[in-house]
Specification:
mainly alpha, about 160 residues, metal ion binding, globular, Serine Threonine Protein Phosphatase 5, Tetratricopeptide repeat, about 55% helix, 7 helices
């Protein structure tokens, strides 16, 4: 097959393969936090008015416990987990408990295992991760959720 045949084939592609013009969304710079705190800035939703509400850690915890309690499918579970873990804090054990129960309710074992991977990535050190694992041990045993470390031990 000659190279000229390929050039003709590429030039004569149908119009529906043509690329549509790309629309670029306006870039919105993230809001820089002035100081460290235990409050969370909520984005979007019902409080998009001018006086952005600084959410306390307790309000954050209550909101996500409620969110996970109302989860009805895997998409909602994973969306809520992505949102909860997107903040610059580690969700409380009560939020993790609600998330694990939601994973069981929608029968999503892999996501339940991944919740602990998310905790491990968010905490500052191995000691904090071990505290979460220890506190959530009874629930893990009740739900039958293994840790990645026990499923795939490193040599």
């Amino acid at each position: 097959m000659s190279a000229s045949f390929l050039r003709v084939a590429v030039r004569s592609r149908p119009a529906f393969f043509a690329q549509a013009p790309v629309r670029r969304a306006a870039f919105v710079a993230p809001v820089a936090h002035k100081s460290f705190s235990t409050s969370v800035r909520r984005a979007g939703g019902e409080d998009t008015h001018a006086d952005h509400h600084e959410e306390s850690f307790e309000e954050f915890t209550a909101r996500y416990e409620k969110e996970f309690d109302s989860v009805q499918d895997v998409f909602e579970l994973q969306r809520n987990l992505n949102n909860a873990f997107a903040y610059d804090l580690v969700p409380s054990p009560t939020v993790i408990t609600a998330a694990l129960r939601a994973a069981r309710r929608v029968n999503d074992y892999p996501t339940a295992v991944r919740i602990f991977e998310g905790i491990k990535a968010k905490v500052e050190n191995q000691g904090q991760y071990d505290e979460y694992v220890k506190e959530l041990e009874p629930l893990r045993e009740e739900l039958g959720v293994n840790l990645k470390e026990s499923l795939y031990p490193e040599n």
